[in-house]
Every structure is written in structure tokens, then in C-alpha cells.
Amino acid sequence: MNTFNVPTRENVSENNQAIFDNLNKALGFVPNLYATYANSDTALENYLNFSNAKTSLSAKEKEVVNLAVSQVNNCIYCLSAHTAIGKMNGFNDDQILELRSGKASFDTKLDALARLSKNITENRGNTDQDVLDNYFAAGYTKANLIDTISLVGDKTISNYVHSTTKVPVDFPLAQPLELETV
């Protein structure tokens, strides 16, 4: 069993203490995964800057990517967090489960985004041409593509941090994804 401890405000650098204070004001708590980044004097600030950077994708589109990538990487922490955030962005439970599977039958454009995000993650960037063609046919641009790839990287970082540290999930647990049988 992993015994990676989640640092508290008192255990982190002065810079990270200020970030903890801001997170507490904005969210009402410091998520365990963010606190884990604070084991480094620079990683939390760097990650939050990257994660909150301007993008051509909407908040809803970002959640599509976050859910598809976190499912491929089997990160229960990020699946749980982004299930909650996905609901805040207007997705219902069934839509969230479908997005996690890399599809969105309820929206053609989001379907292309979910399929691309899943494909990029599964293939480590060696994207299938038909998936990419479908993405562009759905109305996405080259700028959107670069932003999507950046977001896949962003989410993969958090997935790997949790998969390595296994810090406790402090969001309602995401339900398991029932895989379709053929």
C-alpha cells in the first residue's frame, strides 16, 4: 500500500501556502491532488498556470477531453473530480459516462472531440487519420487541435501524479464505467 502523505499548508513552501489560500477561497478546500503537487516548490504553480492557460476550447469541451483522457489512463481521482466538474458544466450522468468511453452520441462535435482525445491518449499521439479527419469535419481547427493535444498532456500529468502517489480521492467517487459487450 502506498503511504504517500498529502501535505498540509504547514508542510509546504511559502509560495505554495499562498496558492493553498487562494484555492481555499476559490474552491472551499485544497484538493488532495493539488496539495500533492505542492511537495515541489514549483510544480503546483507551474501546473495551475498550464491548466488554467487560455485555450480555444470551451469549459465544456475541456471536460470532454478531461473525462476521455482520465478514463483511458484509469485515474479514479481525475474521473471523480471531472465527473463533478462535468455536472457543473451541464453534462448529466449518462452523458458523462458516454464521454468517458470516448463518445458523445448527444452532440456530433463533442463526439469528434471525445473520440480524438481517447485516440490520442491510447495511441500516445499517433492519432488515427480517420479520427483526425472526423475532428476537422466536425468544425474544429488546427488551433483547436493543438489546444486539445495540450489539454491531453495537462490531464495526463495529473493522471500520472495520482496513479503514482495514490493520494485519497476527496470528491464523490465516479461510478465504474460499464464496458459495452458485443
Textual characterization of the structure:
The chain is mainly α and 182 residues long. The protein contains nine helices and no strands. Helix 7 packs across helix 9. The model has no long low-confidence stretch (mean pLDDT 95).
Level of helix content? 55-70%
How many beta strands in the DSSP annotation?
0
Summed up, the helix count is: 9
Query: Rg to the nearest angstrom?
Result: 17 Å
- How confident is the prediction overall: mean pLDDT? 95
Low-confidence blocks of residues: none
Structural class: mainly alpha
| C-alpha termini separation | 36 Å
Quaternary assembly:
single chain
Which strand-content bin applies to the residues?
under 5%
- The secondary-structure element order is HHHHHHHHH
Largest sheet: none
Shape: globular
